[in-house]
Amino acid sequence: LLPRQEMIFNSTEALYNVMGASINSLLETKQNQIEMTKEYIESLKAYRLAKLSLDQALGGYLILLTAQLDA
Fold it and tell me: What is the pLDDT of residues 45-57, one digit of tens each?
């Protein structure tokens, strides 16, 4: 998702540079890119907190279990 948002912004910026898009369109696209990045970071935070809670519930054995699955 993040690379796609960056491509959309870059395309909009290129259009703006040749006067094919308005400044409002460019700013809206950048705002969308920033919001997507914030949502990604929040999702990653929630995932890591959930993983930590699971590890604590398992008494610290999550790392051992995932190591055995990877082997």
Answer: 999 999 889 888 8
The pTM (predicted TM-score) of the whole model is: 0.70
Name the phi and psi angles at 51, rounded to 5.
-65, -40
27 within 8 A of 40, measured Cβ to Cβ: no
Alpha-helical segments (H) within the chain: 2-17, 23-57, 62-70
- Give me the mean pLDDT over the 27-32 stretch: 94
Q: How far apart are CA 50 and CA 61, in angstroms?
A: 15
Question: Do 29 and 8 touch, CB atoms closer than 8 A?
Answer: yes
Torsion 26-32-38-41 (CA) sign:
negative
